[in-house]
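Chapter review: from sequence to fold.
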Amino acid sequence: MRTLLFLLLISLPLVSEAQDKEKQVELQEVEVKSAKVVVKPDGKTIYPSAAQVSHSANVYGLLAMLPLNGLRVNVTGKTIDVVAADGGLQIRINGVRATKGDLQSLDVATIRSVEFTDNAGVRYGDGIKYVINIVTRRKKGYQLGAEATNAATTREGDNSAYAKMNSGNSQWGAYYDFGYMDYRHNDYLERADYSLHDGSVETVERRQHDGRSRNFSHDVQLSYSIADTLGNVVQASVESQFSHSPLQPNSISITGPYNQIATQSSRSRTFSPVLNLYGSKHFGSQTLTADVTVTYIHSRDFSAYDEGSPYNYWDRGKVYSLFADAVYEYRMRPFTFSAGINYQQRFTDNLYTGDVESGSKMIMGQVYAFTQQAGRLWHFSYVVGLGYNNLHYRQGQESYDRHFLRPKFSLKWSLTHMLSLSYSLEMSQWISRVAMLSDTRIRKNAREWIVGNPNLKQPKRIEHTLKLDYSSTAVYNSLMAYYRRNPHANMALYTREDDQFYYTQTNQRGINVLALSDYLQWNLIPDKLTVSASAAFYRDYNYGDAYKHHYSSFSTGATVQCFLGRWTLTAMGDNGFRWLEGESKGKQPATCSFSVMYQTGNWNFWLSGDNLFNAHRVSMESELISRQLHKLMQSSTADTCNKLSVGISWKLSRGKHFSEAKRRLKKHVETDTGLLK
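The token string follows.
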């Protein structure tokens, strides 16, 4: 009987595929009146309602309305943050990683569904836990658009324009974005207790008032693609990013054993062109994709600080990187099989001059291969995958080759058509910040230094996730228990030598995290009033070679959205986020914001406010609890308090929808300069 059942399951996809070849039925488009959520083993697929789409000025506005547990979407700032900082986020369009320009030039009306993964599989590589894949339909004709968001109470803004033209199977695209920020009311307070070798404690207070920080950025992107209605596509795109932070001296008042007014100043400039080539070919139920991205990053930085004695340095960074991958997917019934391989090569050439005399040349090469199968059997669905990673690293006399296996298993049990229980187990490697691998040491002030460590090894993560999901037309709720082990993690190490204090990272015993969370979205009045709320408990366990620290925290947040004809009203708030990693305890403050948007024809106008009725808000608070060095640090800026922003967007679209050809956008972009700061 078992043999007969096995043969029957194997023959089903073959029979189905033969039937599909004999008869293809084209379904007409159906308008969905309310948002629908389909739960999957590693996440869910969300079909936005017509009201949500029509009341979204851009893709960030739409994503803010959807149940994306674990993420915080800032509509006016055009950012998406991982609340618990427990993994990376990738945003994709039709399966391939998208850039900021891709997102801002995306016509919300073309979005068919949003696939959200909060337990990413082996396909996405190390460090990625959340994936947002936006599935769109293509449109003939042309699209033009522009958007401007500028603060009325401070000097900050983001302005962009884009154009897309479809002719036959070809599409041309152009995008430009200009952003600026000029904060003039930055405050910083630091109290440090240094335990000296003679047993005494030296207390130093550093205070900055009305400091200034500036940044200007330009982003230009050009693309061309040719695609057919079967989904075969070839695309080429080139992008150039430029960022500039001008020189701005800031005064810091220092009190303690010595009193002085120190001057701190810095400037930076980064230029990065990117070339991407992509191709995809469909063979019935099979798909083969290939992607190549070449990136160059050139950066110039200057830093000076004269506490105790003058100290300044220049650094010049060059990064050359190549990313190439190929993925094969075979969609069968009752499962989908996928396999792939990618190759990465990164060469970093950083030069420090001035009071830091150092040259840092690093070569990192990686070959990663994976295979994964996802399917469904009776009331159960599963994902089984295995990745293999070979990492090569060389810097000066230091070099190593490491081999990793990255298994993953997920199982979901559909208790009813609305209730499901799932469990996943995954092992992955956590790649260190590249700059910490250098052998450079930089002075931070009269007592402290930051030192790279070329001997750092990439530790592994072992993650367990248990979720109970409930999904109906009006209510979506996700209750999750998460536990992560990081044995031999890269952890902080503070040492004292000649009453100088050195910070570096070494592989120590490990960091473990326990999280219990609940996310609720309730459509009180369909397409009119939606309320979402979240609550989470975190327990951090830090085991260094010479210390042990435990820490508990609790976070909550809520969002209310109201759709009234042409008007959209949104209010958001949370109590911030707290954590402890190594010997550093951090706290992000509570936030609150609102937005009012009015839509008429091709125009959208909106007013947003952040942190109202709060004249002085701490933007970041942290504490260092090392035995030989204890510090309390607070950063704040009046520019983000009582902040009002006004925005306007315009879009013009001509043409009609046709069968989606699944254009692929940029997949991999290198951003790490490798500089130690």
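Two observations follow directly from the output. Helices lie at 2-22, 50-54, 59-65, 100-104. Residues 2-22 form the longest helix (21 residues).
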